[in-house]
Design a protein that fits this description.
Number of strands: 9
Structural class: alpha/beta
Strand content: 15-25%
CATH class of the largest domain: Alpha Beta
Helix content: 40-55%
Radius of gyration: 25 Å
Bound molecules: S-adenosylmethionine
Number of domains: 2
CATH superfamily of the largest domain: Vaccinia Virus protein VP39
CATH architecture of the largest domain: 3-Layer(aba) Sandwich
Order of helices and strands: HHHHEHEHEEHHEHHEEHEHE
Number of helices: 12
Length: 305
């Protein structure tokens, strides 16, 4: 072999080695990125109120619209409020949003207090409460359900916390539940709504996101539609937490079930919507359906002793 042929061979070998190196480096990057993504998707995270505030400041107008548009996610919990709220009650709406539920409660009971974490949401709540002529009946308070220091023990006789504040508090859910129970009198009704672990897994699988469904199975968390990280509960988990906090669970519902598992828009005509809502209400406490929808609702009573 001539020396120039030998040199040509060495250059070809060097190029092959370089391209093998590049492939190996690219593979290592892909593996590292997927490990990081899996760790982020799968690992439980700590509650950061600033992240929740940031998300709701950004989505305040959307949240306001979603509380008044036809949606069984907000309409079904209202049926449970109507069922349990008494005229003599003093009610706390914790994580109350832009006020639709607090206004509804104040129309029935003696007084309602709406507490929310997000200043921009409270500004919209103030406008809505004034527009409904209920400013004297609804107090607005900025605060966090993980620490309700503004309120003494037993300040309220009815407590509503729906729309997932109890999911957003992640690892602080134990403190939050203790606080929610502390501020109501013995014998009071609490209605607590949260994100559903099995419901979110079902949704992710339906969307082809099997890795996310697997990550939820492991961590019990994911990022929700509005953006914040959310803790997803099973019926057993929330039941145990409520019982440990001193309550008995009276009813558990999926709010909604059918409408979260199909295209509900096909029933948007008023008469059809009324029929769908009636069917959902009739079936939403069926144990066979709990966990299919995206939200669970718990009605509990604080024990007398
Ligand atoms: C999806 S909205 C629900 C509003 C209303 N409860 C409803 O069901 O229509 C969630 C609300 O909870 C509030 N929130 C989230 N985390 C909270 C916390 N730790 N303490 C108090 N409010 C919180 C948000 O600012 C937002 O207004």
């Amino acid at each position: 072999m001539t020396s120039s042929a030998a040199q040509g061979g060495r250059e070809v070998d060097a190029r092959r080695r370089q391209s093998r190196h590049r492939v190996l480096i690219a593979l290592a990057i892909v593996i590292a990125v997927s490990l990081i993504v899996n760790a982020v998707l799968g690992a439980p995270m700590s509650y950061d109120p600033l992240e929740v505030i940031k998300a709701y400041e950004m989505n305040a107008a959307e949240e306001d619209a979603s509380e008044s548009e036809p949606s069984l996610r907000v309409e079904l919990p209202r049926e449970f409020i109507r069922k349990y709220l008494q005229a003599s009650d003093v009610a706390l709406d914790a994580g109350g949003g832009t006020g639709a539920n607090a206004i509804l409660m104040a129309e029935v009971c003696r007084k309602a207090v709406l507490l929310d974490l997000t200043p921009g949401i409270l500004t919209l709540a103030s406008k809505n409460v004034a527009a409904a002529g209920m400013s004297k009946m609804v107090d607005l308070v900025q605060g966090d359900i993980t620490n309700l220091r503004q309120f003494e023990d037993g300040s309220f006789t009815f407590l509503l916390c729906v729309g997932d504040a109890i999911s957003y508090v992640l690892d602080k859910r134990f403190e939050a539940l203790r606080e929610l129970v502390r501020v109501v009198r013995a014998g009071s009704i609490l209605i607590i709504g949260c994100d559903s672990k099995l419901g979110f897994m079902r949704m992710k699988l339906a969307e082809g996101e099997i890795d996310e469904a697997q990550a939820i199975a492991e961590s019990g968390e994911c990022f929700c539609g509005m953006g914040p990280r959310t803790h997803l509960y099973t019926v057993d988990e929330m039941t145990e937490l409520l019982e440990a906090a001193g309550c008995d669970v009276i009813e558990v519902a999926s709010t909604p079930t059918f409408a979260d598992t199909m295209d509900a828009a096909q029933y948007s005509a008023p008469a059809q919507w009324a029929k769908l809502k009636a069917l959902e209400l009739e079936m939403c406490t069926s144990s066979e359906l709990l966990g299919m929808g995206l939200h669970l609702l718990f009605v509990a009573r604080k024990r007398l002793a």
